[in-house]
Specification:
There is one protein chain. The longest helix has 21 residues. The protein has a 4-stranded mixed sheet, with helices on one face. The chain is an alpha/beta fold. 35% of the residues lie in helices and 18% in strands. A hairpin with a 2-residue loop joins strand 1 and strand 2. Helix 1 packs across helix 2.
């Protein structure tokens, strides 16, 4: 069983759900872009029962409030969401780099700890301009969210996420959509599609990961998004980071490949639950969140 939580913020609330005893070892669970806290529904019941798991919805996702009109979604805004709740893949990594004293361990599922930005200066400028232009265009349209039948809403979600199963998609929709007289309406703020990313060089990534080198578990799915042979030929950033893992970081970070897709934790949680459980219980110390 789980309980629903709400953390007040200046623009409304950050929603979350929690499992386990309040006095248990605290584990904060952060979902991926455009997902919500339900992504952990099948995994957490398989993990150690003496932990207190809190899975939050980032602002503009799930049951959390949307940010005020005119406010874009910057990457660091999600990090500040975590800081508000603690006082989330890429967000979790950045939080650990900024607040290492508050974290004992970091687990990354199908994530290397960074959002990938263009290395070319012109491409970087173009991406920043596109974020602003799309945001202003969206505000000018002021479109009413589209209502869909439950079947159409699920189909649309599955079409946009080829790694999701129908069961996994239905679980995400339970928290990711609201029933209206006209049909299901997605809860997420359309502006989250245009959030501004933080980009790093490979050298910066390596140095940041070394700051938390003894507390990191990275799980990569063999049919996921980050295995080198699955990457687009132009994605030099991820390939270079993989090379760094194989050389300078291999002895400091536990990197595990498992069978499955990007949503392996939702589709087949038993594949990763034992690995995560062992990592959580090894040399357990009180987390400082």
């Amino acid at each position: 069983m789980f309980s629903e939580l709400k953390f007040p913020v200046p623009w409304g609330h950050v929603a979350a759900k929690a499992w386990g005893p309040l006095e248990g070892y605290p584990v904060l669970c952060l979902h991926g872009w455009l997902d919500n806290a339900n992504t952990f529904d099948k995994l957490i019941p398989l993990l150690p029962r003496d932990c207190y798991y809190v899975a939050m919805d980032f602002s503009g996702h799930g049951l959390s409030s949307h940010r005020p009109a005119g406010s874009p979604y910057h990457f660091l805004d999600y990090v500040s969401d975590v800081r508000r709740v603690a006082a989330g893949g890429c967000v979790a990594g950045m939080f650990c780099f900024l607040y290492p004293e508050m974290v004992d361990k970091l687990i990354l599922l199908e994530n290397l700890g960074f959002l990938l930005g263009p290395e070319d200066t012109e491409a970087w400028l173009k991406s920043k301009r596109m974020v602003i232009d799309r945001l202003l265009s969206l505000e000018a349209k002021q479109q009413t969210p589209k209502a869909r039948s439950p079947e159409a809403a699920l189909q649309r979600l599955l079409e946009a996420n080829r790694h999701l199963t129908a069961e996994g998609g239905a679980i995400l929709l339970q928290r990711g959509a609201t029933e209206t007289p006209a049909g299901l309406v997605y809860n997420r703020d359309m502006r989250v599609h245009m959030h501004s990313r933080e980009s790093f060089t490979v050298e910066q990534c390596v140095k940041l990961l070394q700051k938390i080198q003894d507390r990191v578990l990275i799980i990569i799915a063999q049919d996921g998004l980050l295995v080198p042979h699955n990457l687009d030929s132009t994605n030099h950033f991820v390939k270079a980071l993989w090379e760094a893992f194989e050389s300078t970081l291999k002895q400091h970070i536990q990197l595990v490949e498992v069978p499955g897709s990007h949503f392996v934790h939702l589709n087949e949680p038993e594949v990763v639950s034992g690995i995560i459980g062992n990592f959580l219980t090894a040399k357990n110390t009180r987390a400082r969140l």
